[in-house]
Amino acid sequence: MNKKLTAVAVVMLSMAMSIAIPAQAQKSRFDPSGAFWISGDPPSDFSDFSAINLNMRQLRRLPTSGLQLNDGTQFRFRTVVVKQTNFTFTTATVKGVYYTFSGKFLKGGDFAATWQGEETPVLEGTLTKFKGGEKVADAKLKFIYFGGT
């Protein structure tokens, strides 16, 4: 009788673990899709900056990935690496201007699924602006997340 109970317990535990592992793996998926705004007032050299947009799953409700200015000008990413500990990009050139960024995310997970409207910085790094191939501005910045409406 004890062996049967032990065998049943082992089978049930195995089944429970096989269900729990995929759920846990799904929770740990890194997806920072959304908009990232400068935390606080932007430096004067970046007063025209609106957001860094990431749309990892190409959702219609989110803007196209890239950097956006307040006037609506979009700078698509020419190169981009999106990892929690390494987020870098270089934008395409628009009217002689392009941007680079090198930084890291301060948290992991699925940002849209866990966002509660908080304004705690979730991204930090150095944003650099080039005009005519020359560096004209750079700043070490922190960014807050906005998941869209």
Topology (elements, then pairings):
Layout: H1 2-27, E1 34-38, E2 49-54, E3 66-69, E4 74-83, E5 86-91, E6 97-105, H2 111-114, E7 123-131, E8 134-146
Antiparallel strand pairs: 1-2, 1-8, 2-3, 3-4, 4-5, 5-6, 6-7, 7-8
Structural account:
- The chain has 149 residues and is α+β, with helices and mostly antiparallel strands.
- The chain folds into 2 domains: 1-29; 34-146.
- It contains 2 helices and 8 strands.
- It has helices spanning 2-27, 111-114; strands at residues 34-38, 49-54, 66-69, 74-83, 86-91, 97-105, 123-131, 134-146.
- An 8-stranded antiparallel β-barrel has the order 1-2-3-4-5-6-7-8.
Q: What string gives the helices and strands in order?
A: HEEEEEEHEE
Oligomer designation: single chain
Q: Write down how many β-strands occur, each being a DSSP E stretch of 2 or more residues.
A: 8
What is the number of domains?
Answer: 2
The main sheet comes to: 8 strands, antiparallel, barrel
Q: What's the mean pLDDT score?
A: 84
Cα end-to-end separation: 58 Å
Shape: globular
Instruction: Give the count of helical stretches.
Output: 2
- Tell me the strand order in the biggest sheet: 1-2-3-4-5-6-7-8
- Classify the secondary structure makeup into a structural class: alpha+beta
Tell me the helix content: 10-25%
Uncertain stretches: 6-13, 15-26
- The rounded Rg comes to 21 Å
Strand content: 35-45%
